[in-house]
Amino acid sequence: MTQRVLVTGATGFTGGHLCLRLAERGYGVRVLVRSPEKAASLATRGVEVFQGDLKDSGSVMKASEGCATVYHIAATYRQEGVPDQEFRDVNVRGTQHALEAALRCGAERFVHCSTVGVHGHISHPPADETAPYGPGDLYQETKLEGEKLALEYFRVKGLPGVVFRPTGIYGPGDTRFLKLFRHIKSRRFHMIGSGGVYYHLTYIDDLVDGIILCGTKKEALGNIYILGGENYVTLNEMVRTIAEILGVGISRVKIPFWPVYAAAFVCEKLCKPIGIEPPLYRRRVDFFRKDRAFDISKARRELGFDPKVGVREGLKRTADWYSEQGLL
Ligand SMILES: NC(=O)c1ccc[n+]([C@@H]2O[C@H](COP(=O)([O-])OP(=O)(O)OC[C@H]3O[C@@H](n4cnc5c(N)ncnc54)[C@H](OP(=O)(O)O)[C@@H]3O)[C@@H](O)[C@H]2O)c1
């Protein structure tokens, strides 16, 4: 019999890719989405679309009925300028609704998407799953609260589950790095700070492989896994690689970090009360300051996780997709 699984966050980048792979593998995929219109292309691929909202426990309960596995991918993440309460309502309370529904509906496994951001800045790179928590902003704080809730449901309430923490996700379909690519292409990119900090990417197809391993491997139950690419790079290396792929040179000008951070702080303070997205905000600027380099050996050893797409290849595929879409 086809096994039914529930995916949250299916109208987003990661959840969308995950749904398609699960459907290809023969699972009966149901998605909980706020906007069925956004899930129209998934519906044409045989995915069952259920309209609901993580903030509405009743809809989460109904969506969970009959699902053996729940892949909880949704989060408030991309948008800036959203009220602080929204981060708590979705990343904490919404997660609790998903956990409670899975428990009550007798799900055999709950796969919870956290983030390496729960560790914040990594002072001794690379960090593994035992590194201390150190969230650096509201998004990371609420993701940490969501992760802790999931672990509590696993340990105290007996819900079988797994937590995975992805590193920076990228690939065709994502537009988070588009601005960086555009700035490099138009030679308007200037490094903020030294560019010597590490960044760890995970290519979407590799991540989806890892998520499904978390959802299917017996050994995974009760564990936390960092899922990232094979290598991490410095920001200087990443920018140089993108510039080479795009066939452009890079500026050698480096902008000091702290004045930009202070400007981001002011932008946030001015824009938030009037509800407009700040052109610059601290989380974006932190990208240039925080070391994020991780050790993925636990996932390799215990799950057989084997990321295949290297940074250069992944960035090339991303650039090609931006060009095909007319974005670059
Ligand atoms: N991207 C990264 O580099 C990165 C790194 C580490 C961890 N993560 C984690 O990975 C996951 C996926 O990230 P992503 O980049 O793929 O996210 P994304 O593209 O921003 O997608 C977020 C999804 O969550 C859904 N969602 C938000 N609020 C909801 C609510 N109240 N009810 C139901 N659905 C709701 C969104 O639905 P709508 O379409 O209706 O808005 C969307 O489908 C997140 O948990 C994120 O924290 C991401």
Structure description:
There is one protein chain. The protein has 328 residues and is of the alpha/beta class. The chain has a domain at 4-173 and 201-230 and 293-308: Rossmann fold (3-Layer(aba) Sandwich), CATH 3.40.50.720. 42% of the residues lie in helices and 15% in strands. It is built from twelve helices and 13 strands. The protein has helices at residues 13-24, 40-43, 57-64, 84-104, 138-155, 178-185, 204-216, 235-246, 257-271, 282-286, 297-303, 311-324; strands at 4-8, 28-33, 48-51, 69-72, 109-113, 161-166, 168-170, 191-192, 198-199, 201-203, 224-227, 233-234, 254-255. The strands form four sheets. The chain has a seven-stranded parallel sheet, sandwiched between helices. A two-stranded parallel sheet has the order 7-10. α8 (235-246) packs across α12. NADP nicotinamide-adenine-dinucleotide phosphate (NAP) is lined by residues 8-15, 34-35, 38, 53-55, 73-78, 90, 94, 113, 115, 143, 166, 168-169.
CATH architecture identity of the domain at 4-173 and 201-230 and 293-308 = 3-Layer(aba) Sandwich
Tally of DSSP β-strands = 13
* Low-confidence parts: none
Estimate what percentage of residues fall within beta strands: 5-15%
Q: If helices are DSSP runs of H or I spanning 4 or more residues, what is the number of helices?
A: 12
Query: Percent helix among the residues?
Result: 40-55%
Distance between the termini: 45 Å
**How much is the average pLDDT?**
95
**H-E order:** EHEHEHEHEHEEHEEEHEEHEHHHH
CATH homologous superfamily identity of the domain at 4-173 and 201-230 and 293-308: NAD(P)-binding Rossmann-like Domain
Stated plainly, the CATH topology of the domain at 4-173 and 201-230 and 293-308 is called: Rossmann fold
Q: Biggest sheet, in brief?
A: 7 strands, parallel
| Ligands present | NADP nicotinamide-adenine-dinucleotide phosphate
**Tertiary shape:** globular
Q: Which strand order do you get reading across the main beta sheet?
A: 3-2-1-4-5-6-11
SS-based class: alpha/beta
What is the CATH level 1 assignment of the domain at 4-173 and 201-230 and 293-308? Alpha Beta
Rg estimate, integer Å: 20 Å
